[in-house]
Amino acid sequence: MIVYNARKLSRLELLYICVEKLVGKIDKVYPPFDLNDYQQYLDSFIENEYIYHSDQSYNKKLQVILQYPFSIERYV
């Protein structure tokens, strides 16, 4: 589904969805893995609030989203 709609997504939306899929996959495959810091990616309402209604600048949002996969990597 991501590939089909990729042309319509902004970079921020695409990165958010990729991290969301990563967190969802880790949650299913590795249940003992502690995902308390990443719960926002398991709720679609929070995605909408963060991407479209947050007061942070676009660049700050991108920076935050890009940091999450690297912080997950050190635990795996």
Q: How many β-strand stretches?
A: 0
Mean pLDDT: 77
Task: Give the oligomeric state of the chains in this entry, treating copies of one chain as homo and distinct chains as hetero.
Answer: single chain
Rg, Å, rounded: 13 Å
Q: How does the overall form come out from the CA principal axes?
A: globular
Contiguous low-pLDDT stretches (5 residues minimum) are none
* Share of residues in strands: under 5%
Order of helices and strands: HHH
Roughly what percent helix? 55-70%
Main sheet, how many strands, which sense, barrel? none
Number of domains: 1
Specify the structural class.
Answer: mainly alpha
Distance between the termini: 27 Å
The number of helical segments is 3
Describe the protein's topology:
Elements lengths: L10 H19 L14 H10 L4 H16 L3
Helix pairs in contact: 1-3
Describe the structure.
The chain is mainly α and 76 residues long. It has one domain. The protein contains 3 helices and no strands. Helix 1 packs parallel to helix 3. The longest helix is centred in the N-terminal third of the chain and has 19 residues. It is globular, with a radius of gyration of 13 Å. The model has no long low-confidence stretch (mean pLDDT 77).
